[in-house]
Amino acid sequence: MVVLSNQSALNELFLAKTCNPPTMFTEVPVVDLSRPDAKTIMVKACQEIGLFKVVNHGIPLEVITRLENEALKFFMQSQSHKDKAGPPDPFGYGSKRIGTNGDLGWVEYLLLSTNPDIVSPKTLQLFHQNPQVFRLCVEEYIGAVKKMCCEVLEEMGEGLGMGERNVFSRMIREERSDSCLRVNRYPACPELKEEGALSGRNLIGFGEHTDPQILSVLRSNNTSGLQICLPDGTWVSIPPDPSSFFVNVGDLLQVMTNGRFRSVKHRVLADSSLSRLSMIYFGGPCLDEKIGPLPSLVSREEENLYRELTWREYKNAAYKTRLSDDRITLFQKSADHTHKQT
Ligand SMILES: C=C1C[C@]23C[C@@]1(O)CC[C@H]2[C@@]12CC[C@H](O)[C@@](C)(C(=O)O1)[C@H]2[C@@H]3C(=O)O
Ligand SMILES: O=C(O)CCC(=O)C(=O)O
Ligand SMILES: [Fe+2]
């Protein structure tokens, strides 16, 4: 359970003003991976919204539910037990604190590297505390979701008319790809519906942000909460669908497509009666990968909107920012905040 200790921390978790009941976004683009029009629909969705839903994704339900059940078993343990796998370094178990720069959310989570060779002390502790089955479920899930992520990126490559369809996917397939898996649990917060100070307020589960990597692949249980910001600035709720995956564009993909694809701002609100469990795969390149607009995606008349940075440089700088900061400006040509340390 997420424990909030003082009033000021608590206030920070709430949206400044109570929002109207969230508008359900009924027009989420649906990409059927088994259909030939998949690439066209996903390119349009990435340009206009930055998010789409994938059906016929080929990931067996058992692989998803096995990991979901193991994660739930972990989260149901005592706080002192869970804390042994935290605080995150950045991997491991975390509660309420997101990143290291003061962001708070009504959430507890596990953050894991997808590279089996990068097992941080906190992750080792986590795997050690739990039967070997947890590690196997994580590996099985990562293998399946990574494969699907690469398939999506290849369809995108084709849809964008790039000569080679694997320009994006090879970055994720790389053995040293810096990808990670996050499992978030947002406990229900009954105080939101009770009479009192919290009644009718919105509780931030995970504050607004864009994902820094290339592509994020999200699966959640049947609890709503995920919201995206549309190009006109309105926030809309994404109806949950546990049998599908939601894919969103990350900052690096916005940069590589020279702004054609939109790294979509999103956030999660907590619910008064249902807890939400989400598992997100963040597909990132190797730390040394140089990221900038791809020449094949910048037409002659267009100018390069972004300069080139390695993923290491961008990630180091991004991880020094607050969740809601506009990090992509670090790629802007006038910006000079390269952080060269490892
Ligand atoms: C506040 C932060 C948490 C975050 C690192 C950061 O400084 C800014 C980006 C955040 C984010 C968002 C997407 C992923 O959940 C995440 C793991 C990532 O790569 O960037 C988190 C970072 C985190 O939780 O450490
Ligand atoms: O938990 C969710 O549904 C989304 C969380 C998120 O956006 C993130 O972890 O980056
Ligand atoms: Fe995110």
From TrEMBL:
Named cofactor requirement(s): Fe cation
Matches recorded under InterPro entries: DIOX_N (IPR026992), IPNS-like_FE2OG_OXY (IPR044861), IPNS-like_sf (IPR027443), Iron_ascorbate_oxido_reductase (IPR050231), Oxoglu/Fe-dep_dioxygenase_dom (IPR005123)
Listed EC numbers: 1.14.11.13
A GO term, aspect molecular function: gibberellin 2-beta-dioxygenase activity
Annotated catalysed reactions: gibberellin A1 + 2-oxoglutarate + O2 = gibberellin A8 + succinate + CO2
Function in brief: Catalyzes the 2-beta-hydroxylation of several biologically active gibberellins, leading to the homeostatic regulation of their endogenous level. Catabolism of gibberellins (GAs) plays a central role in plant development. Converts GA9/GA20 to GA51/GA29 and GA4/GA1 to GA34/GA8.
Protein name: gibberellin 2beta-dioxygenase
